[in-house]
Every structure is written in C-alpha cells, then in structure tokens.
Automatic annotation (TrEMBL), chain A:
Entry's Gene Ontology molecular function annotations: tRNA (guanine(46)-N7)-methyltransferase activity; tRNA binding
Organism domain of life: Eukaryota
Locations listed in the record: Nucleus
Chain sites annotated for binding S-adenosyl-L-methionine: 73, 96-97, 129-130, 149, 227-229
Keyword list, A-Z: Methyltransferase, Nucleus, RNA-binding, S-adenosyl-L-methionine, Transferase, tRNA processing, tRNA-binding
Source organism of this protein record: Quillaja saponaria (Soap bark tree)
Xref: HAMAP family: tRNA_methyltr_TrmB_euk
Pathway given in the UniProt record: tRNA modification; N(7)-methylguanine-tRNA biosynthesis
EC id: 2.1.1.33
This protein's name: tRNA (guanine-N(7)-)-methyltransferase
Active site annotation, chain numbering: 152
UniProt lineage: Eukaryota, Viridiplantae, Streptophyta, Embryophyta, Tracheophyta
Automatic annotation (TrEMBL), chain B:
Organism: Quillaja saponaria (Soap bark tree)
WD repeats: 62-100, 151-181, 199-244
Record-level GO cellular component terms: cytosol; nucleus; tRNA methyltransferase complex
HAMAP family, per database record: TRM82
SMART domains in alphabetical order: WD40
Stated role: Required for the formation of N(7)-methylguanine at position 46 (m7G46) in tRNA. In the complex, it is required to stabilize and induce conformational changes of the catalytic subunit.
Name listed for the protein in its UniProt record: tRNA (guanine-N(7)-)-methyltransferase non-catalytic subunit
C-alpha cells in the first residue's frame, strides 16, 4: 500500500484510519467458498509481507521466528495492539473474515508503525476463514496462545456448527497449539459462554487454568477491556463469561 | 452474499447427480464388485456366478447412486454407501446385509479398520462417522446400530478415507486440497481428537489416496492424486511432502506451459500393485492408465509407462486390485447418461503382466477370471455402443468438476455482487 493511499483514509486529528471508510457487513457466512488467497501450507506464508522489520526480504524463510499468538475473529484489532507492546518480541496475527474490517486493521497497524518507529512491527492481520484454513497458516505445536474474544453467537441450533469453538474445531486448535499453550475465550452471551466452556471441558486435550493462574496471567485482564467489542459491552454494563484453558498431552 | 457456492445451499445441478462406476476386488480375488448408479453387482469368481445379495429390509438395496464400495482387509466384510444416505455392511460369505446405518448426509467415502472392528464413513459436510462391529461373529444381523462422530473437516466434502497399513492412523482427504492424518484412538466412539499431521501441497481437490509399503520396509508412505494433475508422496508422521510427480505432464497429456486446461486431467484413482512398488493411476480423458513406480529408499515417484487401451474408447472411472493377484481391474461407466437410453452401463477390463519380465497388457474378455459370465453380470448388458464410453467419461468429468472445483467469479462480477448487496451497512 502506498503512502498517499494510506494518507487518504487516515483521520487528520488522530492519524488513525477512519472507520467510516471501512463499512462492512455485520456477518459473513463462514461456510461459504472463499475468494481470498490461501497459503498452500504454513511454509508458504510470506512473513516478509506481514513483518518486514523482522523479515526484510521475501522468500527468505531461514529465520526460526514464527507466529506464536493468533487472534481469531480479531475484528478491529484492539487486542493485537495491546498485546504488541506487552510482548514486543512475539509475532502475532489476527484472522478476520470480513475484508473491509481486515483492511481497516491493516491500515491501523501501518499508521501505528509510522507514528511509533520501531514499535508494532510484531503484529499483522490476514483475511481468511479461520474455521477452514488454520492448518494452512500454522504448523503442529507452533502457537503459544489463541484468542477467541466475543465471537459471533450463532444462536440457532442448526447454526451451532458455525460456532468458532466446537468439539471438532478444538481438535485443530489442539494441533496448532504447543503443549502448555493457552486458549482464551470470552463472550457476553451466557449461552455461548457455557457452550465454549463445555466444549473445552469435555475435550481430552484441554484443562482449565486455576484461579491463581488466571490472576497471575496479565493477558486475562485484557480479554474484557482490549477489544472494541469488549469495550462496548463494558460501556453498557454487560456481564461477560470467560473460559481459559491449557493444551495438555492426551492421556 | 458475496461468497458464492455455499455447500449448505445443496446442489441442484443435474450434472452433479452423475456418479462414476466403481470397482472393488476381494483381497484374495474371491469376488469382484461393481457399483453403477444404485446398482450393486457382485460376481463370485470362486463359484463362477453372480452372488445374490440378501437384505432383510428388502430391496432395492440402495435408492440412489452408490459413491463408495470397499472390502475389509480380511475379506469378510464389504461396505456400500452413497447418495441415499445409507451405509450397508455385507458378509462376503453369505452376501447377507448384516447391518444398515443411516447417515444424516450423503456418503462420499468409506473405510474399514484393518481388524474389521470399525466401519468409518464420510459425508458431504466433512464429518467422518464410525460404527463399531466389536463382538460381531459374522452371521447375526445387527439392528439399530448408530454411527457416532469421529472427526470433521470443517464444511468440506471428504473425497477419500483410508486406514494406514499399521492401523495407527485414519487419513481423510478433502475438496479443499487438504489431507488430514489422525491417530485412530483406542476408543473410537469417543472421537479421534489427536491430529498427527496435515499433508499440504496439492493446489486442487484431492481425489484419491493409497498406501505404499515395501515388504521389507516396516514404514509405509501415502500417495495422493488430485485435480491439480499431480500424484504426491508423503511421510504421514510428519506431513512432509517427499515427492511430487506431475503425472499429467509426464504422461504427455498436459503441456508443461499449462496451455491445456488442467482440470481436464484430474487424477481420479490410484491403485497400488505389488505392495506399492507400482502404482496404477487413472486420469480424466486418458484412455488407459499411467503406471508409476515408487522408489521407497530414494522416496521418489516416477512415470514408468502409459498403458493405452487400443481398439476401444475406455477411460477408467475406478481401479481395483487384490494383494494376492497380479491383475488390475478397471471399470468405466456412469449412473445415468443424459441423452442416452442405457441405464447404469459399465464396462470392465483387466490388465495383467506386472511382473518384471513382462509387459503389462490388456486381457481379452474371455481370458478374464470369470470370463464372459462375469462380464455379463458386472457390465449389466452384453455389448455396448462405442459412443457411450466417451459420453460417459465426459459426463463423469463434468460432474466431478462441478462438485469439486471452486467456481471463480471474474472480479467485475464479484464487485457487482458486492454492490448490489443490501446488507452492507453496520454500526461500529
Ligand atoms: C463480534 S466480532 C468480535 C471481534 C473482536 N474479537 C472483538 O472482540 O472486538 C466477531 C468477529 O469474528 C469474525 N469472524 C467470524 N467468523 C470468522 C471466521 N470463520 N474466520 C475469521 N473471522 C471470523 C467476524 O467477521 C467478526 O469480525
């Protein structure tokens, strides 16, 4: 993206991209066929495109540095931005299905990089359907953390299989998470909160973090405060339901 | 909606209903099975006559196109399943249907665990189901058996399902270019949650899977065929791609500059011969088969030769062999052919001579085990008009493309679809 293009959509007062240029549909159907490019395999992910600071030239995949955090359904990217400075040496990616929202996050990150030289080089975003293409992005055991913050609830019984946490999808998440890796989930929809907790609880490769561990983890505090959706819920005084689980070795 | 083909919408195109004829051979070549449309035909080679299938539920056994047939490794069990959402398990001794299981969706692939205790089947929505036959003695009929979910490819059509030769893994391949290797658990009814690897590299749908393992070699390797006109060799424990053979180009079907439509030469079936030193490969539009050799110590695949079928238009839709015989069985045919009166036509041919000294060659009809009687039974009619073969192969090709190849809308059209959407505005 050229600089002039970028400037056009940045707000004069804040230097951040203006949301009204990024109107998007409320929901995409995750079951549909896609038209965005999908990397053939994790080794085909072009890190130089996402993290030019760490990977100055493309095609050079010798670095052992890999993406370790994934924010699934990242929306407008608030969590990534908070995590970026908290874990400045960790590469993270947001996965988002809506193209306009993805474009917004891209420009938001570029603007932050411009305004804060040397910072925000470790975060990026990709437009994809996480429910279909997680194995195309991450190798076995590559991830340390996965985030599912305020996912779409899909209330109807027949749409439960569109939920981004499900018993079968947890098999894939268990595959890309290393042993000890953590899944963070939060929602303001009680029914969905119960569903996510039950899916994790019943899965043979996940165990709940203890109260103590939750308190000690600085990331837990961000779940309800760092994202746009979380802030909206907080403004309206809504309740939230979180489930945080660790990847274990199957017995 | 911007995105186009939702499999949820269901397929209404009539072309999609055309199903290729299938063939399977008993592990010791006691019998050969052919499925054409909803017709299941078994020829008992030992007895020299057609096997008569018995089903307590009465006939017809299947009410819509059969999409998968499979003998168990021990040869006691046979499974048939397809578009009627019915999975039938047969005793190969009595040819009695010992168990009928209903599926929620159309069935696209089946696999039987090597010990014969579990039957797995995959549906059009990417779910693999398992039915246990633990404690089954071989002569009773199992009623009220239900399938439970084993694993799932999120909303993709599963095209092939195989157990690894050591029984440790179940391998599932899909329309989204993905092969998943999952540990087959001790209690499969609780689900198979531990993924060993994904084999990623194909750039089109996967159509078929097969295992190769040399006799002295304890390790086995996976081969896969795809709509991208390649056959690939994989290490399933790591998911590593060991070799990639552009069989469409090597067999002289495709220009290496890609001037021919790639989809015309999708690999449709792979069959291992002689423990996998040799592979027989069926390719769309190819009249015959490609023989590939697999060098397991060098971990390479190469085209050994193309066996053409002279004097007859014969593009195999399915291949079968038994470990004990050195024969490759082939069938071509379709469930129903638009514009032709023939119903459920099929043609069976056999290739022999895979031993080192010989040249593989097509066997004359009367030299096939079972001879003319077998052909009459499996083909459904004696002589078939030449023209039909080509039309059949074309129909199968169209159907496969419609089902498995993603429709790419030109960019302008996509833009237009976006612009005419009325659900674009949201509050932030
Ligand atoms: C309610 S929003 C929450 C966004 C963000 N996590 C937050 O807390 O503000 C859910 C997001 O998930 C995205 N999404 C839904 N299904 C998805 C999928 N299959 N793959 C990637 N993103 C998805 C939606 O487009 C939407 O932006």
């Amino acid at each position: 993206m050229s600089e002039t293009e970028l400037n056009l959509t940045l707000s004069k007062s804040t230097g951040l991209p203006r949301k009204r240029f990024y109107r998007a549909r409320a929901h995409s159907n995750p079951l549909s066929d896609s038209h965005f490019p999908v990397p053939t395999s994790p080794s085909h992910v072009d890190y130089s495109l996402h993290y030019p600071h760490y990977f100055p030239s493309s095609g050079q995949i010798n670095s052992s540095k890999k993406i370790q955090f994934a924010d699934i359904g990242c929306g407008f990217g608030g969590l990534l931005i908070s995590l970026s400075t908290l874990f400045p040496e960790t590469l993270m990616i947001g996965m988002e299905l809506r193209d306009k929202v993805t474009e917004y996050v891209k420009e938001r990150i570029l603007a932050l990089r411009l305004a804060n030289p040397g910072q925000y080089q470790n975060i990026s975003v990709v437009r994809t359907n996480s429910m279909k293409y997680i194995p195309n992005y991450f190798e076995k055991g590559q991830l340390l953390k996965m985030f599912f913050l305020f996912p779409d609830p899909h209330f109807k019984e027949k749409n439960h299989r569109r939920r981004v946490i499900s018993p079968h999808l947890l098999d894939e998440y268990a595959y890309v998470l290393g042993v000890g890796g953590i899944i963070y989930t939060i929602t303001d929809v009680e029914e969905l909160g119960e569903w996510m907790r039950a899916c994790l609880e019943n899965h043979p490769m996940f165990e709940a973090l203890t109260e103590k561990e939750l308190e000690a983890d600085p990331v837990v505090k961000l779940l309800s405060s760092a994202t746009e959706e979380g802030q909206k819920v907080a403004r309206n005084g809504g309740l939230t339901f979180q489930a945080v689980y660790r990847r274990t070795t199957p017995s | 909606m911007e995105d186009t083909t939702t499999i949820e919408e269901g397929e209404t195109n009539k072309d999609i209903e055309v199903a290729p004829a299938l063939i399977a051979v008993h592990p010791t070549q006691k019998s050969v099975a052919v499925a054409v449309g909803s017709d299941l035909r078994i020829f008992d080679i030992e007895a020299g006559c057609a096997a008569s299938l018995v089903d307590d539920l009465g006939g017809p056994f299947h009410r819509d196109s059969i999409r998968a047939i499979q003998y168990g490794a021990e040869g006691k069990l046979f499974v048939s399943a397809g578009d009627d959402k019915i999975v039938k398990m047969w005793s190969t001794k009595s040819w009695r249907c010992i168990c009928t299981v209903c599926s929620e969706k159309r069935v696209t692939a089946v696999a039987i665990s090597n010990d014969g205790l579990y039957v797995c089947f995959a549906d059009k929505f990417g779910v693999v189901w398992v039915v246990d036959l633990v404690g089954f003695e071989g002569n009773q009929t199992l009623v009220n058996k239900k399938a439970t979910q084993l694993l799932s490819h999120y909303c993709s059509i599963i095209t092939s399902l195989e157990f690894s030769p050591d029984g440790q893994f179940i391998v599932s391949a899909d329309r989204d270019n993905k092969i998943r290797v999952t540990i087959f658990p001790k209690s499969p009814l609780d689900g198979a949650h531990e993924i060993q690897s994904f084999c990623l590299g194909h750039t089109e749908f996967i159509s078929c899977l097969a295992f190769v393992c040399a006799r002295e070699c304890l390790q086995s390797f996976l081969v896969s065929g795809s709509g991208d006109s390649t056959v690939r060799l994989w290490d399933i424990s790591s998911g590593d791609l060991l070799d990639n053979c552009e069989v469409g180009i090597k067999a002289g079907l495709l220009e290496s500059n890609g001037s021919t439509e790639q989809h015309d030469h999708a690999v449709t079936d792979i069959c291992t011969i002689q423990d996998g030193v040799l592979l027989a490969v069926a390719i769309q539009s190819l009249q015959g088969i490609v023989l590939m050799s697999c060098n397991l110590s060098a971990r390479t695949l190469s085209v050994a030769k193309v066996v053409s079928i002279a004097k007859e238009t014969f593009i195999p839709t399915s291949l079968g062999t038994s470990p004990s015989s050195r024969l490759l069985w082939m069938v071509t045919g379709v469930s129903n052919l638009p514009g032709f009166d023939y119903l459920s036509f099929a043609r069976v041919r056999v290739i022999s001579g895979f031993d080192v000294e010989q040249e593989p060659a097509i066997i004359e009809d009367n030299k096939i085990p079972g001879g003319d009687t077998l052909l009459e039974n499996l083909q459904g009619s004696a002589i078939i008009d030449e023209k039909i073969f080509l039309a059949a192969a074309e129909a199968v090709k169209t159907a496969m493309c419609n089902l498995l190849i993603k429709k790419q809308y030109p960019a302008e059209k996509r833009e237009f679809r976006k612009k005419t959407r009325n659900d674009r505005k949201v509050k932030f």
